[in-house]
Each structure stands twice: as C-alpha cells, then as structure tokens.
Write a structure and sequence with these properties.
By secondary structure, the chain is of the alpha+beta class. The protein has a domain of 226 residues. It has a 5-stranded antiparallel sheet. The protein has a 4-stranded antiparallel sheet with strand order 1-10-11-12. Strand 2 and strand 3 form a beta hairpin. Helix 1 packs across helix 10, helix 6 packs antiparallel against helix 7 and helix 7 runs antiparallel to helix 8. About 11% of the residues have low confidence.
Length: 430
C-alpha cells in the first residue's frame, strides 16, 4: 500500500468518484459534484487562478495558485479552521468566563438526521435552548445567556455522528439587568433536559410514524437522559489558549492528512483515537465505503455550521457588549497568555511554517520577488502591477508609453529582464 500524502484524497476521488455516484445516486447531484470538483481543482492555476511574482533582478517568475478554501479539502482545512478560530475569538465578551458543553445524539437516532439534513438547523436551535433552560433552572431565575453552537457530523472513525459543541457564557443577565454567574452545572439536569429537547424536536419535525417508536425506545432505554459532556474546568478565556482549544472542534474535516496511512487503489487505511478505549485504532476500508464516509459530512448548500444565540446573536452582540461592560468587571482573565486576538497569519508566514522556506525569495538569485499580476480563472488578468508601473514610469519618457529610452517595446517575458538595475534604483525600485 502506497504511503499517503496531501494529494491522496484527490487520487481516491479521481479514481473512484464516478463509480461511487453510480453505486450511491443520492450523491450524484450538481451540488456534490461541485464540492468534489472544487477540491480536485484546488491548487491548479489554470482552474483556480493564481498570483504571479517576478524577481526584479534576474526576471525569474513564480506562480502561486489559489486554493479552494473548502473545509472538505484536506489541504485547505487548517487555514479554513484558523480563520474561524480568529473570528470566534473576536466574538468573545470581555470579562466573561466561558464554559464548554457537548450534546450528543444516541446511535439509533442518528439515522433520522442522516436521512433528513433539514433537521440539523433545528438541532442547533434545540441545543441553544437547552443550555439556556439549564442555566436558568440552575440559577433559579430566567437568564439571558450567550452561546456559540458548532455542529459536527463526524465521529473520530469518520462515521456519521451529529453532535453539538457549545461555547457559552458562564452566567447571564437576570431580569433586573445584573449579571448572575453560574459556576456549577448539574450533569443530571443537562442529560434529562437534552433528552427532552431532542425528542421534542424529532416529534415536531419528522412526519413519519416510525419516529414515534424510536422516541418511545429513547424514553425507556435512557431513564437518566442522553449523554452530554460538561468540561469540569473553565474554558481558556482568550488568546492562544482559546485558539488551541477551539481548533479541535471548529469546522475541522472528517479526517486529516496525517491520519491517512495509505491507499492502494482498492482500499484506504487510516488511524483514529477511540473514545472508549483511549487507544489509537487503525481501520482499512474499501475505497467506495471510504468515499461514503467522507461525502456524508458535506453539509447542505449555504448551511452555517457555527451559529450564535442570545447575547452572541448577530443583531444583539454590539448592544450586549456595551451592556456587559457596565455589569461585568472586565478584569484580566486567568489565562497566563492573556486576552488578545491573534492576527491572521499571512500566506508567506504560513508557507514558511509548513515548508521551512520563504516562497517569495527568488529561487535563482535569492532576491525578494515582487507581485506582478493577479489572474482570475473566469475573468482573466484582473490586475497587472508591472503594467501600471511601466505606464507611470514611461509617460514622461521620450520613448513613450511601455518603452524604455533607447529600446523598443518590451514583451511580457523581456520587460523586467531588460531593465538596467541603475534605471530601477534611480526610481526607488531594486
């Protein structure tokens, strides 16, 4: 079996996507084909477009293709996740302690969500309503809390396992306008409340009599409620600590590049950490089953897997931030790394951290390369920086537009190479 690399998933889909669609016509849709095609084209300059850099000293050029920026693409998964981590970090409320709760769906109920993707939005709303109910009952007063709900559909082996990760304020605004902290969350109450909200959702949203049998089975088989996990400690309040914490849950792909161990044309091998045993487990699946495990996690078009409720709601966030500034002391959080938002890393830094070299140093003479043009796959050249440069440079020269003194017009390949270095230095370039 060949060792896997970042392109292994692409080879799996190139070799077997058509065969999989024939075996599973549910996924033979324009939308699914588009998602897969986008992943396969990622990094192809002809199909995705590119930016081109040029060395002003020796004329060497380098093209860097645009990525697809999809969570389904293993190559783009990390920067995609980092962008969401940075966004969520900026949405935290200063001075507020946050808690983390995971709400799960029992095995025998997951099939209803697999067959009905439209249930995923109500699932997220039910999770937000559940935690608010739990906090209000625990505090003995109606609380207005803030929550960030993240939907995950993949279990660690890659199976279909819809569950919610909820980052919520460790308290809420009471009817008098003050802040009521909630430092203790009774696990038993969370389990029973989540059972009630989840089964009520299914009864109200699914028009199938068979669901009633599943609901009855759930009430009888789970007298203590459904499984939910509540972190015992406090969630890191900000900065790098929070970024590392959220990165485990936010828009991560069903499997990462480093977990794929091999592909031989017929099967795919990968590893995962098993929740129950705590050990590393290895799995080898027929290639069509592996593809099925991947594409079942493609969410409906336009679906937002991260949603904000209560104090974090889009229409309320700015006002809630102002209100909390007067009722919650914005003291420095206990995180030793402090409450700060990490800036998004530029492409050059990310490339250097991944590959150990600067992508914008000329491979021939090691001089810094300059951005020359941006090319869109549909609209062609949308910006040519050297064209602008030469237009501005030569408008007042006797040779005229696009020419250098004593020389004829330059074509694309010659324009930079033929420019004498003193000429550039005299104009502040080079």
């Amino acid at each position: 079996m060949e060792h896997a690399d970042k392109d292994t998933l692409k080879w799996v889909f190139r070799d077997h996507w058509d065969a999989f669609k024939a075996a599973s016509p549910r996924y033979n849709t324009e939308y699914h084909n588009g998602v897969v095609a986008k992943m396969l084209d990622c990094g192809d300059p002809e199909k995705m477009g590119f930016v081109q850099y040029r060395c002003l000293y020796c004329g060497e050029t380098r093209r860097i293709a645009f990525s697809c920026k999809s969570s389904f693409c293993l190559s783009c998964a990390k920067p995609y996740t980092d962008r969401w981590v940075g966004f969520v970090g900026r949405r935290l409320l200063p001075g507020v302690v946050y808690r983390h709760i995971v709400l799960t769906v029992p095995d025998f109920l997951r099939v209803w969500f697999y067959r009905n993707p439209g249930l995923l939005s109500p699932l997220m709303r039910a999770g937000a309503a559940c935690v608010r109910d739990v906090f209000s009952r625990t505090a003995g007063v109606e609380l207005d809390i803030g929550s960030i709900v993240v939907l995950q559909t993949a279990g660690r082996p890659g199976n279909y396992n819809p569950h919610l990760h909820i980052l919520l304020t460790g308290g809420g605004l009471n009817p008098e306008g003050g802040w009521t902290p909630v430092s203790y969350i009774p696990f038993e109450l969370v389990h029973r409340k989540w059972q009630y909200y989840l089964l009520t959702l299914l009864r109200e949203e699914v028009a199938d009599r068979a669901v009633e049998r599943a609901i009855d089975q759930a009430w009888r088989g789970y007298p203590r409620g459904f499984v939910a996990f509540v972190d015992k400690g406090k969630v890191p309040p900000g900065g790098e600590g929070l970024a590392r914490y959220l990165a485990k849950y936010v828009v991560s792909p069903p499997i990462s590049v480093r977990r794929i161990e091999g592909y031989d044309g017929r099967s795919v091998s990968y590893w995962y950490h098993d929740h129950k045993t705590g050990q590393v487990e290895h799995a080898t699946l027929p290639v069509l089953k592996f593809i099925g495990r991947m594409v079942q996690h493609i969410l409906p078009k336009g679906f937002q897997r991260i949603r904000y409720y209560g104090l974090h709601g889009n229409t309320r966030y700015a006002q809630a931030r102002q209100t909390l500034a007067t009722v919650v002391p914005a003291s420095a959080p206990p995180d030793p790394q402090g409450f700060r938002v990490l800036p998004r890393k530029p492409f050059r830094q990310l490339f250097f951290e991944s590959f150990g070299r600067d992508p914008l140093l000329c491979p021939r003479c090691k001089s810094p390369m300059e951005l020359e043009r941006i090319v869109h796959p549909k609209y062609g050249i949308i910006k040519d920086y050297f064209e602008t440069f030469f237009t501005e440079l030569t408008d007042d020269e006797p040779a005229g537009r696009g020419e250098l003194p004593g020389r004829g017009p330059l074509d694309d390949a010659e324009r930079v190479v033929q420019i004498p270095l003193p000429f550039l230095q005299a104009r502040g370039v080079g």
